[in-house]
Amino acid sequence: MTEPPNKTLVLLRHGQITWNAENRFTGWTDVGLSELGHVEAVEAGRRLLHDGLQFDIAFTSVLKRAIKTVWLALEEMDQMWIPVHRSWRLNERHYGSLQGQFKHEVAKKVGEEQVQRWRRSFDVRPPALSEGDKRFPGNDRRYASLDPAQLPCGESLKDTIERALPYWHETIVPAFASADSILIVAHGNTLRALIKYLKGLTDEKVVGLEVPTGEPVVYRFDHELRLQQLPTFAHSMSRCAHGCSPRSRFRDFFSLASHLRSHCSSISFQQRLTKKR
Ligand SMILES: O=C(O)[C@@H](CO)OP(=O)(O)O
């Protein structure tokens, strides 16, 4: 008889921010949740509570949209007491000098195709920020302890994977030794980076992967961190606070689920989860 899954990982993108609604490149800009984002974060907690999730530890970035989402979701679950660890390695991808610009205005100048290449290609970097720019992370005291060589001026998804995965391997995976249930609240592109790695998606396949705000996805593993079933949306038959069903919003996820289904029996997820590439 197969053992029931006993390790749980929930990936959650922060709730909506005003710059998402306005369609502005955000990256490392520290923008807060919009009213809808606030509702989405509370609703995420409600859905996780409904599914009986009890977290042992949570991980997030050093950006307030993710931190606040952890707070609101855990508050809704009455689990605010668990340890929450923050790392710049879970920050959104750094969008270079595009940060703050409206995507449609950039598209008018350089064309839709170029904007899409910057947003979704695997290894294309956005135009870099200069170190003299006030938006450069070296001017922000929260990054003061970093080696200057680690401070990004603009990252591709590939760069984001390279700085996020050490945190996965060195901090999150070891936490599973004493934790049965882990929550990661991060950002669209950091989560794309993690999902690419966990599911072994190709560089081409990840281009079509979108991660919606405020939708917790639950992964179940056995004690050796082998994936036991397809990831599921928490309380997935519910409607979101703003009235649309998860299934209608996230077609990309379901196409990825079918990709995963076809690979599920042959891939060693333990290998993906625990070994560096
Ligand atoms: O601007 C950003 O930081 C990200 C996420 O909001 O945008 P995109 O989805 O275009 O990568």
TrEMBL record:
PANTHER family documented for this protein: PHOSPHOGLYCERATE MUTASE
Described purpose of this protein according to its UniProt entry: Catalyzes the interconversion of 2-phosphoglycerate and 3-phosphoglycerate.
The keyword Isomerase is assigned to this record: yes
EC number: 5.4.2.11
GO biological process: gluconeogenesis; glycolytic process
This protein's name: 2,3-bisphosphoglycerate-dependent phosphoglycerate mutase
InterPro entries from the UniProt entry: His_Pase_superF_clade-1 (IPR013078), His_PPase_superfam (IPR029033), PG/BPGM_mutase_AS (IPR001345), Phosphogly_mut1 (IPR005952)
GO molecular-function terms, A-Z: phosphoglycerate mutase activity
Domain of life of the native organism: Bacteria
Catalytic activity: (2R)-2-phosphoglycerate = (2R)-3-phosphoglycerate
Site note Transition state stabilizer, residues: H187
Active site, per annotation: H14, E92
UniProt entry tagged with the keyword Ligase: no
Pfam families on file: His_Phos_1 (PF00300)
Highest classification ranks of the organism: Bacteria, Pseudomonadati, Planctomycetota, Planctomycetia, Pirellulales
Pathway in which the depicted protein is active: Carbohydrate degradation; glycolysis; pyruvate from D-glyceraldehyde 3-phosphate: step 3/5
UniProt KW keywords: Gluconeogenesis, Glycolysis, Isomerase
Positions of substrate binding: 13-20, 26-27, 65, 92-95, 103, 119-120, 188-189
Family: Belongs to the phosphoglycerate mutase family. BPG-dependent PGAM subfamily.
